[in-house]
Write a structure and sequence with these properties.
Elements lengths: L1 E4 L6 E6 L1 H28 L9 H13 L8 E7 L6 E8 L12 E6 L6 H24 L10 H26 L7 H8 L4 E7 L5 E7 L4 H10 L9 E4 L1
Antiparallel strand pairs: 1-2, 2-5, 3-4, 6-7, 7-8
Helix pairs in contact: 1-2, 3-4
Length: 247
């Protein structure tokens, strides 16, 4: 990480580097670059084929279309259109990759955090950023999976109650995660939710000799990962227990 103060002194910028992000962006650059150059090659090959696009305006239109679909890769290329001296026919198409400095092409895996808190050091800024992204991820999960969004209430007090429940749910999530972190478990809420969702309660139904129906409801055995979470939280791995009902 590198902390830099802007020239006017109004903000602090923290430049961070991620190896995982670098690998991902490098793969994206390679894929988009191949697609863009394949498009240029197809246009260039058409210049020498009967019936191919040769008019300058049409050639420029085709180049413009592949630039629009290049996901930003087109900005890193210098393209020269060679035109016939006495007509508007294009005779050759040349291109050269010229990476723009300060972009994903030249600095894959690098991203910038900006703040107007001039007194924050690198550690404080980084921890604040991770806290905000974590908070956003939790709220996104609560509002989607738990059905807390959209808000259909038309009265203000009902909308406030809806938001209050969301905040309470967030506090419950944070309490769980804080206790897990004390045991060295630092998984995201998304990962934890997937692990918790692996355990279910099932009901087996049997017909008895006297004609009555026996229903046995039991929680399935927790897998090792879920069992570790239960132990860290001090919760039994078989909540509610076994229940029998006769109808």
């Amino acid at each position: 990480m590198q902390r830099v103060v802007s020239e006017d002194g109004s903000e602090v910028r923290l430049y961070c580097h991620s190896k995982q992000r670098q690998a991902k962006e490098a793969a994206m650059n390679a894929r988009f670059t191949k697609r863009f150059e394949d498009g240029l090659l197809k246009i260039a090959e058409g210049l020498s084929k009967p019936g191919g696009t040769k008019k300058r305006d049409k050639v420029l239109n085709r180049i413009g279309r592949i630039q629009e679909k290049s996901c930003g890769i087109g900005q890193h290329y210098r393209i020269d259109v060679v035109q016939d001296k006495v007509s508007d026919v294009v005779t050759a198409l040349n291109w050269e990759r010229v990476p723009v400095d300060g972009t994903r092409m030249t600095h894959p895996g690098v991203y910038c955090l900006r703040t107007n808190e001039l007194q924050w050091d690198e550690v404080t800024l980084w921890h604040t950023y991770t806290m905000l992204t974590d908070l956003e991820a939790v709220f996104r999960s609560l509002k989607s999976e738990l059905g807390m969004r959209p808000v259909y209430h038309h009265k203000e007090e009902r909308a406030e109650g809806h938001l209050f429940i969301t905040v309470l749910a967030y506090q419950a999530v944070q309490t769980i995660r804080r206790k897990l972190k004390g045991s060295g478990i630092n998984d995201s809420w998304t990962s934890l939710r997937k692990i918790f969702s692996g355990q279910q309660r099932i009901t087996a139904t049997f017909r008895q000799e006297d004609g009555r129906t026996l229903n046995i409801r039991k929680t399935i055995v927790a897998d090792p990962r879920l069992n570790n979470l239960y132990q860290a939280l001090g919760i039994t791995s078989s909540p509610v227990g076994l229940r029998k009902m006769v109808n």
